[in-house]
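Q: Structure for this?
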Amino acid sequence: MATSTLPSSATTKPVVELVEATVRFCGDSGDGMQLAGTQLTNTSALIGNDIATFPDFPAEIRAPRGTKAGVSGFQIHFASQEIFTPGDQVDALVAMNPAALVTNLSDLIVGGILIVNKDSFDAKGLEQAGYKTSPLTDGSLDRYRLIPVDMTATTRNSVAGLGLSQKEADRCKNFYAMGLVFWLYDRPLDPTLRYIDDKFAKNATVAEANRRALKAGYHYGETVEAFQNQFRVPKAKLPPGKYRNIMGNQATAIGLVAAAKRSGKTLYYASYPITPASDILHELSKFKNYGVRTFQAEDEIAAMTSIVGAAFGGAMGVTGSSGPGIALKQEGMGLAVMTELPMLIINVQRGGPSTGLPTKTEQADLLQAMFGRNGECPLAVIAARSPADCFDVVQEAWRIATRFMTPVMVLTDGYIANGSEPWRIPDVASLEPIEITHPAPVAATSNGDGANGHAAEAFMPYRRNERLARPWALPGTPGMMHRIGGLEKQDVTGNVNYEPANHQHMINTRARKIANISADIPLATVEGCDSGDVLVVGWGGTYGALETAVRKQVAAGAKVGHLHLRYLNPLPRNLGELLKRFKKVLVAELNMGQLRTLLRSEFLVDCIGLNKVQGKPFQVHEVEAKIHELLKS
Amino acid sequence: MSTEALPVLTPNDFASDQDVRWCPGCGDYSILAQMKKVLASLGVVRENTVFVSGIGCSSRFPYYMNTYGIHSIHGRAPAVATGLKIARPELSVWVITGDGDALSIGGNHLMHCIRRNLDMNIVLFNNRIYGLTKGQYSPTSPLGQINKSAPLGVIDNPLHPLSIAIGCEATFVARSIDVNIKHLGMVLERAAAHNGTAFIEVYQNCNVFNDGAWEYATDRNTKLDTTIELEHGKPLIFGKNRDKGIRLNGLEPEVVELGKGISEDDLLFHDEKAAEPSLAYLLSRMRFPEYPEPIGVFRAVDRPRYEEEVVRQIDAATKKQGEGTLESLFNAGDTWDIN
Ligand code: SF4
């Protein structure tokens, strides 16, 4: 393999060094754009860039070929400095067909590099994209550095003689496009060649075809005159350590296994297939040799209620879904709150309501997480801010769940679930155990047992500790037999009880227990200025865009801070005080103002909203524009 | 292994301290009594036993058993029990449910629980009515029944619980009657002994909202003619004078009188171990008044248990790949160092 890397010294073209670059591949959903993006991502990560990615694909698996509905894209931002977002606009756009061009062009910077597969710009392709004349010749692309490549023809040429059908040959186009972009940004081919060896190990011909297409694309860049130079984005100065590239759902899965190991528990993950949460199930179902028990349930309700059973049995019960599935699980969550058992419910949010936008991101399930159940039914809610942060958040959620004997809702979203970033691999020895105690067996008494009510020292399933958490007694333990359920129960004994004063007491107690968590979590912190004119408050996957916008504003001299909430219920105990340190509070979220509603009612602060529900993350400039507006008014 | 002798438990040791709150005269009392008796006689370890239920009169059952228990939410008991059983395969798990709980709101869970064949017992108390919500028709209410939500009579075609269970690939299917206590005890014992999901329908009288629904099957004067006790390997004979039998006419069962040229050998012989569920299904379709209704074990076959398969895959993967460590998990795939 040593000779397979094409060193940049082989080219005679000059190399221009950049701090960062943003590239987007787009094409038909059958064109392999997600793969192209993933390869560029992994390669960029491996050579030490900081990266942030944004895969964007349609809900349809295969919309009609060449149509706008079928366009799939993958954007990657790589840099030699710390970055937090996949970038507002792209420096280079690779469009595999007219539909991809027309739907993506507006995100390309003026003067940006535009690589198109000109072979697809035939009459039919143009018509499907709604072009009256070909943009390649009518001058409408003059603002860009247009590089039309006859990708279909050259890919076919490069694989000629391997005996592939035309369809098979055309399927190698994405590798050709990758090769070209790899040359353009001076990336090594080795990781992708390794990927090809691995992925197509069983089909030597296809492997060879893809290798050839990749190299042909690379060589094309080297030889064609349209490219005057290469670009190079050097290594980023990230904190020292060992890194890997990680996607949010992957980090969630790994974090769950870590939490199970730290607490000495068996991980039981129950889920029903749903976009964009299914990858958590896929990942965990591979981890059998870690002792993970996965259960693909018959429906969302079964997934949820089965974790109540698993939790009763003493396992680490976790279910994951997205908005519509979470709605179905809510009654089961009520049972979890009532039985006061620890478990996790992960909501990888997507656009709603109803089926909504399955493959697009949104943050509109916060109030569902807070209030979606019948009755006064509080549970803890925490949110991850980035792909790698999912790893930490699920472990923190499990720590809270077991310490307070409560279900915890973990909010991520489609954007961070499918997005990726470099993850500094933690030192396993640095992970502290999550301590869990279960009541020890009690010997049989003269009454024959120690079950509730039978003996003086009867087990009291709802006798609480100083945090108001009840004991987690497990089946199989002599003397601890008890019955729990969804009916209101008497405090201490856990017996069914309908007395008015007891109900009030239990409602108050369950609420106080959740409120007590605030004493157990870190204080909120403000990045940027710690007091001043505008405080930008956000939560979840918008962290990158908000932090980048605030840093830019601070660099420009504005007195702006950024407060990003991980803990949404209960809120950090210093939050009210922090909000008062700024003249204005801007709550930016991908919904119509759900956190804003909570903050207003909790702190009587007149928060201003920046709200967007377009199935897309915030762009940095949108946030900056709003901050600017507030600074001026 | 401890050599200490286990304490001998009586049915009363299986009673919790809670007052039983079913209506006086309810058939549930009898089922509870038989359950306690059977568990005591089997020497069941209470702390290793969990009763899981949904919502409805029958679902109060776990509160009255001095074992572990979950009174969950409407229809979900099979799913709750599935999670428990996968997490803790060594526990003995019983699901207590009713016709509305299991076949209406929880139909989907019941279906999938049975097909997975987890080693647990599901006891469906069939009273053909919604009792706890005071008298609406249930999925097993007969056509034409007059009740609170069908003042002009039920128009929903009723379900046969055992036909459903068999359609869901059940490995153990049985039926008994609340007041037929000996038989009920035997069926519960057989269910407890079965390795896999055991599904039992118990005819249960709701004397408040649907009194006498099973009278034909319980009345001393008629029951021997309206029910037929299944015994493995034996011909299907019934009647006060044991002079009637079931014969197969093509794919249709028919009631015949013994003698007059028809001998026992001409009758249908019960085979609970038949690999194909066709016979069990045919028996589950026999309804009064056209036929006597079979009671006993319809089907008892062996198939792998879901939770064992879960563990088997984990063991196999662990053997092949070695026990996963966090080191190997974190460091999987391509990594790079930054100094
Ligand atoms: S309503 Fe019917 S089923 Fe319910 S407890 Fe009363 S008699 Fe039994």
